[in-house]
């Protein structure tokens, strides 16, 4: 019991150290990139004010923000504020960045989680079917579908779905996360889900072909293994073999892939949210990028780095649970 | 003596070939087993001896119909007098015909030994399996281990138990003893002997000639995918003068206790088999006839031999 607890604490500490050092590296790199980029944060701030400003006033702001100080000093000023939990104020939304991320992430999380679950389950199931019928007709058809899906650009697919399901069939709304003209406290859960389905489905199509093809390949390898040959020699049928040996042995790579797809998922959500005008983190980051909102851009960058890193960490931890060979070494 | 017993498995002119890509898209058939004859009676242990690549393990796969997809099988196999069709092979494997595979790689790396040895059978033969493990001196916690945690010898004993759990009438053991201590190997073979004495049959594929001669009733000598000779085990104990085929004699002389004397040349590769007798290129007694035509199987002194000159 004591050993298990010690192990968990140790894993937790190592993970935390890794995440913190990663975030530190990301903060340096993104800060450098913003510094050398042509974006002038002061100019963007003034534009956001919406009023003209005198050169003296502008000089005052520059002085107050410390724009003319050396970059290293500016970095440490930023970092100190960051550690205090102050991510700054968004130039385009005029609100603290932390609040915007928190609010937008709830929307994005619902979207990404649905897409993630959907692509994982469907991808895994289709991968199993393809693997079991390897070389036969169902495999050939599904494989082609997967190739087509993974080579079609997602924004185009999103537009196509909008055209078919929202414009022609009118099954789903054309965009946003809630109906237009309804106060946010009056929006029902069903309305939220209704707005979520199409973007989530589009987003899931991005990674599910990948997961299906990987699962298929792994299952083919397993089915060609010696232990499956022996299972066959002991009289186990195809589906018994899948249940007893197949699933067990392809679960680990599928999980890895599933948790490693967080990065893709985040990238995809930027696209999906823009196509469907969905107010999530993805559309916030593209707005911040296009309008030079430095505090929001940096905030989302750090947040997404953490998000992806946590995903990969979870995959690492799950290895130990699923694979006895790794668990044994850990002990 | 054996002739009175029921013939369990009869194999006639069995050939197994593999379709392979040769140069570019050209396909080529590689004959790994050619014109193989083997008869197994209930109540006996037949040892199959021969060097690596002589098709011993392939024969096991062919009997169970677990060959890869690119393999084609020709010839006849009869089980209890009835043609062994694919449908029957499917019914018999794991129930009436059991395989003891070669290595730990044949165990699912992610499944614990207990449930794995129990297999998919219903009801679960857990009690029977525990008794077998005990007999094989496998510690009680073995059932909670994963295959990678077993030593080589433990893995073999687990593999042997998987076959003994079943009510198989025919057990095909593919090199069951390496890695076991002498005592454990003897125990495994004693159990095979017991099963044979109960009226079951065992095909023992082995490199360990001494154990084979000691426990088997008959020995089939494989060479380049065919049986060159099937003789009583006692003939091998007697020496080369009791044997019929020049390769069997050479094999006997190559054993450490019998002079350790190799013959020149190599077993032919499956892609470049000679036209006539497969052993002819290395045979000191070969004649023109041997190089032209494959010799038929002849019965000499209670054994079978595929040679024009065997006596």
UniProtKB/TrEMBL annotation, chain A:
CDD domains: TM_PBP2. Residues 105-319 form the ABC transmembrane type-1 domain. One of its GO terms (biological process) is transmembrane transport. GO terms for cellular component: plasma membrane. It is found in: Cell membrane. It comes from the Bacteria. The chain crosses the membrane at residues 12-34, 109-133, 145-173, 193-213, 250-276, 296-319. It holds the Pfam family BPD_transp_1. Signal peptide: none annotated. It is a multi-pass membrane protein. Keywords: Cell membrane, Membrane, Transmembrane, Transmembrane helix, Transport. The keyword NADP does not apply. Belongs to the binding-protein-dependent transport system permease family. This is Peptide/nickel transport system permease protein. It comes from Lutispora thermophila DSM 19022.
TrEMBL record, chain B:
It is found in: Cell membrane. GO terms for cellular component: plasma membrane. Pfam families: ABC_tran (PF00005), oligo_HPY (PF08352). It is an enzyme of class 7 (translocase). Residues 11-249 form the ABC transporter domain. Keywords: ATP-binding, Cell membrane, Ion transport, Membrane, Nickel, Nickel transport, Nucleotide-binding, Translocase, Transport. It is a peripheral membrane protein. It catalyses: Ni(2+)(out) + ATP + H2O = Ni(2+)(in) + ADP + phosphate + H(+). The complex is composed of two ATP-binding proteins (NikD and NikE), two transmembrane proteins (NikB and NikC) and a solute-binding protein (NikA). The lineage of its organism: Bacteria, Bacillati, Bacillota, Clostridia, Lutisporales. NCBIfam families: oligo_HPY. This is Nickel import system ATP-binding protein NikD. Its EC number is 7.2.2.11.
């Amino acid at each position: 019991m004591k050993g298990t607890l010690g192990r968990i604490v140790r894993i937790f500490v190592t993970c935390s150290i890794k995440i913190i050092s990663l975030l530190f590296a990301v903060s340096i790199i993104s800060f450098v990139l913003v510094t050398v980029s042509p974006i002038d944060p002061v100019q963007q701030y003034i534009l956001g004010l919406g009023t003209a400003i005198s050169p003296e006033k502008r000089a005052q702001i520059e002085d107050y923000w410390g724009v003319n100080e050396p970059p290293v000093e500016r970095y440490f000023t930023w970092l100190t504020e960051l550690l205090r939990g102050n991510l700054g104020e968004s130039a385009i939304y005029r609100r603290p960045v932390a609040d915007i991320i928190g609010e937008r992430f709830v929307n994005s999380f619902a979207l990404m989680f649905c897409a993630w679950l959907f692509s994982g389950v469907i991808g895994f199931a289709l991968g199993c079917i393809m693997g079991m019928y390897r070389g036969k007709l169902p495999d050939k058809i599904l494989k082609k579908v997967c190739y087509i899906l993974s080579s079609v650009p997602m924004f185009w697919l999103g537009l196509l779905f909008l055209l078919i399901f929202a414009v022609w069939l009118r099954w789903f709304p054309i965009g946003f996360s809630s109906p237009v003209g309804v106060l946010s406290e009056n929006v029902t859960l069903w309305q939220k889900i209704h707005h979520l389905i199409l973007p989530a489905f589009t987003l899931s199509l991005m990674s599910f072909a990948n997961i299906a093809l990987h699962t298929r390949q792994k299952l083919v390898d397993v089915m060609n293994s010696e232990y499956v040959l022996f299972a066959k020699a002991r009289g186990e049928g195809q589906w018994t073999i899948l249940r007893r040996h197949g699933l067990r042995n392809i679960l680990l790579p599928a999980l890895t892939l599933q948790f490693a797809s967080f990065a893709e998922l985040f990238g995809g959500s930027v696209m999906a949210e823009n196509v469907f005008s969905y107010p999530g983190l993805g559309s916030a980051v593209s707005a911040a990028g296009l309008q030079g909102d430095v505090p929001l851009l940096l905030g989302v960058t750090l947040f997404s780095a953490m998000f992806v890193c946590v995903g990969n960490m979870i995959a690492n931890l799950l290895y130990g649970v699923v694979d006895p060979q790794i668990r044994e070494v850990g002990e | 003596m054996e002739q009175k017993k029921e013939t369990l498995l009869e194999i006639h002119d069995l050939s197994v070939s593999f379709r392979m890509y040769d140069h570019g898209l050209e396909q080529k058939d590689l004959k790994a087993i050619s014109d193989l004859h083997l008869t197994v009676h209930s109540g006996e242990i037949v040892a199959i001896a021969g060097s690596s690549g002589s098709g011993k393990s392939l024969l096991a796969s062919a009997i169970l119909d677990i060959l890869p997809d690119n393999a084609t099988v020709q010839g006849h196999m009869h089980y209890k007098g009835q043609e062994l069709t694919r449908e029957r092979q499917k019914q018999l494997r794991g129930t009436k015909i059991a395989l003891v595979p070669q290595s730990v790689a044949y165990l699912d790396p992610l499944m614990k030994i207990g449930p794995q040895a129990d297999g998919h059978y219903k009801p679960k033969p857990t009690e029977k399996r525990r008794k077998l493990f005990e007999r094989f001196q496998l510690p009680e916690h073995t059932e909670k281990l994963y295959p990678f945690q077993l030593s080589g010898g433990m893995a073999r004993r687990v593999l042997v138990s998987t076959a003994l759990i079943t009510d198989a009438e025919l057990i095909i053991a593919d090199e069951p003893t390496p890695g076991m201590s002498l005592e454990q190997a003897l125990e495994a073979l004693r159990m095979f002997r017991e099963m044979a004495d109960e009226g079951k049959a065992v095909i023992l594929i082995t490199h360990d000639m001494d154990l084979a001669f000691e426990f088997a009733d008959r020995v089939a000598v494989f060479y380049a995918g065919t049986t060159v000779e099937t003789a009583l085990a006692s003939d091998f104990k007697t020496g080369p003068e009791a044997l019929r085929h020049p390769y069997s004699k050479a094999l006997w002389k190559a054993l450490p206790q019998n002079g350790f004397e190799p013959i020149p040349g190599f077993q032919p590769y499956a892609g470049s088999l000679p036209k006539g007798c497969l052993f002819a290129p290395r045979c000191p007694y070969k004649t023109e006839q041997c190089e032209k035509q494959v010799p038929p199987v002849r019965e000499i002194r209670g054994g079978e031999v595929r040679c024009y000159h065997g006596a």
